Amino acid sequence: MRTPTSLLAVLAAAVLSTAAAAQDGIRTERVQFAPGASSTVIDDAITGRESVDYVLGAAAGQTMHVLMHAGSPSVNFNVLPPNRDFEGQAIFVGANEGREFSMVLPESGDYIIRTYLMGAAEDEGRTVSYQIEISITGAGVSGGAGQQSTWTVSGVPEGDILNVREGPGVDFAIVGALGNGSVVANLGCQDQGNSVWCRIGFTDEMGGEGWVNARYLTATPGSGTNIDHGGADRNLCANAVANQVGVSANDVVVTNSTISEATGYTVIYVGVPNATADWICEIDRNGQLVSVFFSG
Questions:
Q1: I need a surface site. Which of 77, 140, 251, 286 has the fewest CB within 10 A?
Q2: 10 Å Cβ neighbour count for 221?
């Protein structure tokens, strides 16, 4: 018995419709770090109008860092917060802001890293491969400052004060001031290119928070958990330097980091109490420590 041509056309249309619907959907993947790890690398691919949601839980005050590698400019990612006013609301839009995201998270819950295609690759149903590096660092903000690691202000010149600013940099408005010996809550740090800035919480009865240059912060003795220095590479370097000079990693401060044009290594500068200059670490693209030395 021959199948009518019209029926074949209907069946073909149904198959194409099903394939298109699959490409238009959102695939969801729960991100799990290995035991003891704070980061992971995901190799994946996306086709046409498909989106992929990578879901991972994090706490307010932790730092999320996402870096995408792809051979095609058509693939991007957005970051969606836990409590959204509408579907698709993003705190980062890769199509406008690039392929690297770093933020001290404002709230606790499940964050979504959503990948998607744009342009001809989306319209023509192409498949594009990519790699995403994801890290979550820091202890997060818990019920009160006494449960968090804390910083102590030090190294401010005599007779001077440390300005507390509204954001991570000298261009932000001043919202307070601190002197040597002031104790503040550690809410996470960010690399701002030529310097590292830390978000701090005031521990007095007035409360509040702001940002200060990390160069003027040291760990408060007995403040609890190890301090996050701003990601896996910085933590590795801080521990390596601390081992070299015989102090706790909580007692050193990452002051700057850059990428060497000659070697491609990440070069990290670490301040040590009473040292006349910074220590320097070099870390390769695989996250392996290459060298540690004193710059003075």
A1: 286
A2: 10
Q: Which residue has the tokens 């957005």?
A: 78
The residue-averaged pLDDT of 220-226 equals: 53
Cα–Cα dist 51/17, whole Å? 17
Instruction: Please answer whether residues 254 and 196 qualify as being in contact, where contact means their C-beta atoms are separated by less than 8 angstroms.
Output: yes
pTM, full prediction: 0.45
Q: What is the pLDDT of residues 141-167, one digit of tens each?
A: 433 323 336 778 888 888 899 999 988
Render 67-91 in DSSP notation, one character per residue.
EEE-S-TTEEEEEE-SS-SSTT--S
Predicted local distance difference test score (pLDDT) of residue 118: 93
Are 123 and 50 within 8 A, CB to CB? no
Angle at CA of residue 76, ends 70 and 78, nearest 5°? 135
Delineate the domains of the chain, giving CATH numbers in brackets. Answer: 24-137 (2.60.120.380), 145-294 (2.30.30.40)
36 alpha carbon, distance to own chain's centre: 17
* Burial profile 150-170: b = 16 or more Cβ within 10 angstroms, e = fewer: bbbbbebeeeeebbbbeebee
CA distance 294 to 241: 9
- pLDDT, mean over the chain: 78
Element (H, E) at 18: helix 5-24
* Tokens 């690398």 sit on residue: 41
DSSP 105-134: -SS-EEEEEEEEE-HHHHHTT-EEEEEEEE
* Cα 277 from chain centre: 28
pLDDT tens, position by position, 173-189: 999 899 888 888 777 77
